[in-house]
Amino acid sequence: MDRLFYIARDEEIINGEATDIYFLRTVDVLRAAGLDRVRVRAEFHVVNLPRNYRWAVFAGLKEVVNLTVTKELPITIYAMSEGTLFKANEPIMVVEGNYVDFAVYETAFLGILRHYSSVASKAARIKKLAGDKSCVFFGARVVHPAIQPMVDRASYIGGCDGVAGVIGARLMGIKPSGTMPHALMIVFRHATGDHTLAWAWFDKVMPSDVPRIVLVDTFFDEREESMIAAKLLGNRLYGVRLDTPSSRRGNMEAIAREVRWTLDLAGYRNVKILISGGVDEEDVIRLRDVADMFGVGTSIAFPPSVDISMDIVEAYDEKSGRWVPITKRGKLPGFKQVYRCRGTLNDQVVPWDAEPAPCPDGSKPVPLLRKFVDNGKAVESIPNDREIRDYVIEQLKYAEI
What we know:
This protein has 401 residues and is of the alpha/beta class. The chain has helices at residues 10-14, 21-32, 61-71, 99-102, 106-130, 148-157, 166-172, 182-192, 197-205, 222-233, 246-249, 252-265, 281-287, 298-301, 385-396, and strands at 39-46, 56-57, 76-79, 85-86, 93-98, 134-137, 162-163, 213-215, 239-242, 272-276, 293-296, 308-317, 322-325, 336-340, 347-351, 366-367, 370-374, 377-378. The longest helix is centred in the N-terminal third of the chain and has 25 residues, at 106-130.
C-alpha cells in the first residue's frame, strides 16, 4: 500500500481516477468507435428528496469548479449559486461538452455535490428549527479525519453558527467553537480529587476570547454542578453544557428547565445552556424554548442522502447545427432554466429559451442557473463561505419545514 489512509489524493481526483470503472470502459469504447466528439448537455437534479424534505441546499459547487478549472476540462458549467435552496425535479447544474471529456468525472462531481448537499441540507433544517438559538457542529469525530474540513464547511454554509473542527475552521477563516471533554474533569478528579479544579484551570489557561462553557454532568447532578461552576467562575462563566449520558438522561427538557430555574433563582440569568449529545430535529423542537445553544454532531454528519443524479438531456447534431433533446425514459429531455419569484421558493422550470410566467405580484422571476465555467475557465466567482451561509440563512426565512 502506497499511503497511510484509504483516501484519494488530490492528483488522483484531478486526473479522474476517483471514478467508477464503467466510465473508463465507456470512454475506451466511444473512442474506439470514433464517437469521442459527441457533444452533450448533462443535467444534475434530484427526482425525490428525502422523506419530509420540501427543499434541499445546493452545496459543493466550489469544489466542482475547482476540479474543472484545475484540470482545464474543456466543458461549460451552468449552475445555481452555491447555497441555493432547491426542490425536486429542478436542474441544479448542467455540464456541456464532449461526453468523453467529462464522463470519468461524473463520479467525483456527484460525490462532491451529494455529500455536500446532504450535510448542508440537514444543517439548514436544524438551524431553521433552532431559530435564533445557536447551533454548533460537533461532528468532527463522526467522520474520517480526511474529510473533516469538508463536512465542517458543508455544515457551516448550511447554517451552523460554528464548527469544532480545527482544520475546517482554519480553512474557512473562522474561529473553531468548542467547550471541554469529560476527560478533562476525569483526569483532574483522579489527580487531585476535585474535578471542579478543571474548570478553574480552564479559566486560568484559556485566552480571554474563549467562552467559559463548563461541562456539568461528569460526576454530580447537572443542577448541582451548574451551581458549583457559577459560584466558582462568577460572571466569567458564559454557559453550561448538558451532555448527559443516555443511561442517566431521563427527560432532558426537565433537566434543562431545572438547571435554568436554579441558575435564575440564584441570580445567574446570563449563564447560557448548551445541550449536546445525540441532538436531532425532534430534540431541537422540544428543547429550543429552554436551550440557548445546541451542539449537533451525528445527525448532521450522517444525514438523509440528497440523491443527486446526472442524466444527458440534449445532444448536439453537427448536420443541423442544433441541440436535440434526448434522454432515457423517466427523465425530462431538454436544456432547462429555473425561475424563482423573489423572497419565495415559488419556482418555474421551463425550456432554456422559454419565457417564464410573471410572479403573482407582476414582477419578473429571477433565473437561477448561471454560467460559472466556460470551456474550462472560471467566468464567475463563488462567494466566500460566510456569504454563502448568509444566503442560506436569508432563504430560510421563507422556507417551510
